[in-house]
Amino acid sequence: MTTNFFDVKDSRNLTMLVDFYELTMGNGYFFNDVANKTAYFDMFFRRVPDGGGYCIMSGVQQLIDYMSNLKFSKEDIDYLRSKNIFNENFLNYLENFKFCCDVWAVPEGYPVFPNEPLVTVKGPVVQAQFLETMILLTINHQTLIATKANRICRAANGRPVMEFGSRRAQGYDGAVYGARAAVIGGCSSTACTIAEEMFDIPVSGTMAHSWVQLFPSEYEAFKAWAETYPDNCTLLVDTYNVQKSGLPNAIKVFDEILKPRGLRPKGIRIDSGDITYLTNKCRKALDAAGYEDVKIIISNSLDEHIILDVLNQGAKIDGFGVGERLITARSEPVFGGVYKLAAIEENEEIIPKIKISENEEKITNPGFKKIYRIFDKASGKALADLLTLNDEVIDESKPLVIFDPIYTWKKKKLTNYFVKDLRIKIFDKGNVVYKSPKVTELRDLAKVETEKLWPEVLRFENPHNYYVDLSPNLWTLKQNLLQKLSDDYEGNN
Amino acid sequence: MTTNFFDVKDSRNLTMLVDFYELTMGNGYFFNDVANKTAYFDMFFRRVPDGGGYCIMSGVQQLIDYMSNLKFSKEDIDYLRSKNIFNENFLNYLENFKFCCDVWAVPEGYPVFPNEPLVTVKGPVVQAQFLETMILLTINHQTLIATKANRICRAANGRPVMEFGSRRAQGYDGAVYGARAAVIGGCSSTACTIAEEMFDIPVSGTMAHSWVQLFPSEYEAFKAWAETYPDNCTLLVDTYNVQKSGLPNAIKVFDEILKPRGLRPKGIRIDSGDITYLTNKCRKALDAAGYEDVKIIISNSLDEHIILDVLNQGAKIDGFGVGERLITARSEPVFGGVYKLAAIEENEEIIPKIKISENEEKITNPGFKKIYRIFDKASGKALADLLTLNDEVIDESKPLVIFDPIYTWKKKKLTNYFVKDLRIKIFDKGNVVYKSPKVTELRDLAKVETEKLWPEVLRFENPHNYYVDLSPNLWTLKQNLLQKLSDDYEGNN
């Protein structure tokens, strides 16, 4: 498939998928004559789910689709008017809404880290504020699933992982865009048919237990399947009893239906029982029957931990079907991305803003910023990310000293490095200036970029904390703002 | 709002949101000339999430929308043809697809229990099988969220619970249909604007921290808000410091802007910090300033446990905004509903089918069944549910003996009872014959029906196991099938 059916399949107008307070604030900005003040908002997250070392950025193309199609229908305006709290000049603005923000984002597939501005919006505060709900919803969801899929695929250690979770997803988009994110994270295919139509990602699937039950016997069910799909025959062998029934029936059907035609069966699937024990028994029996090339596929409430465990026990597995624990990121199903005001403009000057908190790690990084990823020239490995103010340029010919933003005496002097500006502009004054690559290309990109991280960062448990440091300028700006706010309170009280 | 914007807002064709194996099986049914064999499938779940005592059925209206709109476009057919595995007679069937199944379901809002057939489909196996993915996806998602919302709302003990989770939902439908399910479960409102347009459920919202940050000072931000919304003024008081700044500024603005106009403020919201401590301080200060009627709203990673805990500690709270832990059912984000073949017809006779498993609790209940809920006439309380074969009628004038399906000596003789056939028919030969009530009516229904359960079943922890028993006919049928299957294996080996 090369056609992209996106426009056919998802023609919804999601403009009104917005927290109501974005609208009451928008109305308030108008009422107080600040609607067109230029604001900078950052989207970022504070910790990696599952105690992992990094996340995989995902969802940018859907953000672009959303921002490109912002439009309030007449019905939307009528509905808002019926609330009797919105002023007519605000409603007129919405009715004639013309998106005009600048937007930057880390491209999909890149490993990303806590406190990095993954998306930055610059524009009239009434617009930049409005985007909050959908930026968070889109990036939080897809980055969560891509990150979980990446863990599961790394555990599978090169074996294909098929995404099988639609039926347990949290809603239709959970299934469809979840499948997309799962493939970016590393899955080889999805069972979700519409996802292939929409995103041109490979679809796969075998049979259900109900197929086996529908026929008078398992043998007849297998025979019917082999006759239907002689070129691509994978049999589900655990409907009744793998060893006593499923496996012998499968081998019998392979022998009787496929062998005489010179065809090789593709595989067997096991969806229940003791994986290590059964796969070893099956492997032995298949090999003895001359089916050394027939794959054994496993699917039963799998996640990265179970996969690591059964492989470690010596289970004989060629591929995994992973459902509910991937598509819902069951072990940690919330990605806590936030969207915070970083600066406003007054008289064309950028005034940085900070959000303080009694919880120190919730204090934001102020100002209009940039992310540089610093690579070691010799190994090509990523050494650290450095947040700077937007106009800062790094001179790669000179040594670079980075330091921990809390324990500032912890310094590191970098030489023989090069830097990459991690973000790309996706909207310029409201016009799209970027298109994400194909999903399968993003999967390849994610693999390449992840391999640039040190093994210590890739660990499943207790990974090394990748450095995300602040430039001296940004660090000083932040400290000054914190000092000033602290002084204000002491003065006030 | 009385208009339902559903058709405007969700005009997607979700027909192709289907696991690919439903299609390969469908093609196989045609190839093997069994596509029009009549099959009965049941959707049911095996355990209540979070160790609770019951679930709240939700999602039936979306099932109806889906089944009413099944249609394969020319592009879908072209796409399927391009896979080179589907026969033309199957593709022709899909191209001219005409839904013709009978479907029964428990209406939304009812408490439901493990192993009950919540949805039953009767129809040609090619159609009944096809529905699997979307029946599970729809009911699993909404029942999960309605059930979680019901727990959270019961913990709030009469105080309103506002659904605030869109930004952390798993995809757009996770937000939109999640908001719908949350209201069925008991939430008073949602922040998700489009959900009000689509389902006519109340929307609510206040302000974000960014509103406060945008203005030169918190006082000016509050003043601007009060000027904009003098009739409906709720202020977010934790942007800088609740006690030193937010609370005194709020009271000052209430005094200066609202009091002179004879208007009462609505409330304050606290989104961080020590809830019990801060709400007590705020309540005291508000009362002292003459604002005894001003509500204190709390929102910060809440769930039923934290709500029970802070209320138990004496926190002064009038309402809750609940986000990520509700909209993702974070503590247990997967609802494990399954869809299993229960019977087929041969020569117009129903042949019951059973799915066995080494895990005894995974063995299905065979046959075409009915759910009776048995109520005590004196108290009106629900005593038990009884699964029977579809043609069984209970004579309420006679005592009814029910028994545990495992420990069959545990019996109970019921007198002075009445029964209710719990399911309704939603499709008759492919035509819709039911429409769900309004979402707010479903919320009322859920409240009424939940109150018919004994307090022991309503417990948050270790609830009493509500009885879901089998009629003697159904029990005997199941035992006979199990005996036969067991004998088959011993004979085979």
UniProtKB/TrEMBL annotation, chains A, B:
Domain of life where this protein originates: Bacteria
Domain Nicotinate phosphoribosyltransferase C-terminal: 369-478
GO CC terms in record: cytosol
Catalytic activity: 5-phospho-alpha-D-ribose 1-diphosphate + nicotinate + ATP + H2O = nicotinate beta-D-ribonucleotide + ADP + phosphate + diphosphate
SUPFAM superfamilies xref list: Nicotinate/Quinolinate PRTase C-terminal domain-like (SSF51690), Nicotinate/Quinolinate PRTase N-terminal domain-like (SSF54675)
EC numbers: 6.3.4.21
Keyword terms of this UniProt record: Glycosyltransferase, Ligase, Phosphoprotein, Pyridine nucleotide biosynthesis, Transferase
Domain Nicotinate/nicotinamide phosphoribosyltransferase positions: 161-348
A GO term, aspect molecular function: nicotinamide phosphoribosyltransferase activity
GO biological process, one term: NAD+ biosynthetic process via the salvage pathway
Signal peptide as annotated in the record: none
Recorded metabolic or biological pathway in which this protein acts: Cofactor biosynthesis; NAD(+) biosynthesis; nicotinate D-ribonucleotide from nicotinate: step 1/1
Nicotinate phosphoribosyltransferase N-terminal domain boundaries: 16-140
Known role: Catalyzes the first step in the biosynthesis of NAD from nicotinic acid, the ATP-dependent synthesis of beta-nicotinate D-ribonucleotide from nicotinate and 5-phospho-D-ribose 1-phosphate.
Protein name: Nicotinate phosphoribosyltransferase
Organism: Clostridium oryzae
Origin organism lineage: Bacteria, Bacillati, Bacillota, Clostridia, Eubacteriales
Gene name, Swiss-Prot/TrEMBL: pncB2
